[in-house]
Amino acid sequence: MTLEILTPDKKIYEGEVTAVTVPGTMGSFQILKDHAPIISTLEDGPVTVKSNKAEDEIFVIKGGVVEVLKNKIIVLAEGVA
Fold this sequence. Notes:
It is a single chain. The protein is an all-beta fold. It has a single domain (2-77), classed as F0F1 ATP synthase delta/epsilon subunit, N-terminal (ATP Synthase, domain 1). The chain is 0% helix and 63% strand. The chain contains no helices and nine strands. The strands form two sheets. Strands 2-1-9-8-5 form a five-stranded mixed β-sheet, with no helix packed on it. It has a four-stranded antiparallel β-sheet with strand order 4-3-6-7, with no helix packed on it. A hairpin with a 2-residue loop joins strand 3 (19-24) and strand 4.
């Protein structure tokens, strides 16, 4: 899967991932390979990125939207703390 995390100012992250956990409005949820298409609003909180690297990467966002379609995840964040 590919992930992009974008803010109005710049691209924060782009790369291949195995799982992503996002802070949804109704609670956090995880996105795995072949996830059903979804668009969801996001609250302030951590986006946890799992990839083939040893450690997870965590980005704290300030609200936004996530779109998942055909194993491509796009997080449009209002800002990153």
